[in-house]
Amino acid sequence: MARAWRRAVFALAALALVVGALWAFTLLDRGETRLAWLALATLPLAAWALRAGRSQAGVLRDEGGSWWLETPAGAARPLAGTLRIAFDFGAWMLLRFEPEGGRPRHWLAPSQADMPEAWPAFRRAVYSPRIAPAGLSAQAPADPPA
């Protein structure tokens, strides 16, 4: 995960924590207790974002038309799944990896700074159409419809 991405997530989550706390204290000062509880409910979300921004996503591989994610220590084996592009800013991308079997998705933020020599090939792989498995309607019919 790109260092810039981690810094951006940290900055936004820290800002959300500060704003949420100030909002809650302001509402409590005004005597609006019910709304203050709503403001306090945003704080765990910001704390979760801080934790999520620090997590290492792993190593992404493209093998034979399938995407695989090797997660950090603790995972038994690589996960097969689908890769979706959320944002593409040229030198930086936000990708969503959706593992097969309904497992939680992973957000990845690769950048050209992470892999300068491999960046063009990586971008081509991300945008390349996935190859359908052989034998599953991937083949054209013998006689096309008339």
Descriptive key words:
single chain, 2 domains, 40% helix, 3 helices, elongated, alpha+beta, 5-stranded antiparallel sheet, PH-domain like, 146 residues
Describe the model.
This protein is of the alpha+beta class and 146 residues long. The protein has two domains: 3-54; 59-127, PH-domain like. The chain is 40% helix and 21% strand. It has helices spanning 3-29, 33-54, 119-127; strands at 59-63, 66-70, 79-88, 93-99, 106-108. Strands 1-2-3-4-5 form a five-stranded antiparallel sheet, with no helix packed on it. Strand 3 and strand 4 (93-99) form a beta hairpin.
Structure summary:
40% of the residues lie in helices and 21% in strands. It has 146 residues and is α+β, with helices and mostly antiparallel strands.
Widest sheet, order of strands = 1-2-3-4-5
Number of helices: 3
Q: Report Rg.
A: 21 Å
Helix fraction by DSSP (H/I, runs of at least 4): 25-40%
How far is it from the N-terminal to the C-terminal residue, by CA? 51 Å
Oligomeric state of the chains in view: single chain
Query: Structural class of the helices, strands and pairings?
Result: alpha+beta
- CATH class of the largest domain, anyone? Mainly Beta
Name of the CATH architecture of the largest domain: Roll
What is the beta-strand fraction?
15-25%
Number of domains: 2
Average predicted confidence as pLDDT: 79
Biggest beta-sheet profile: 5 strands, antiparallel
Molecular shape: elongated
Q: What is the CATH third-level topology name of the largest domain?
A: PH-domain like
Helix-strand topology string:
HHEEEEEH
Q: Would you report the number of β strands?
A: 5
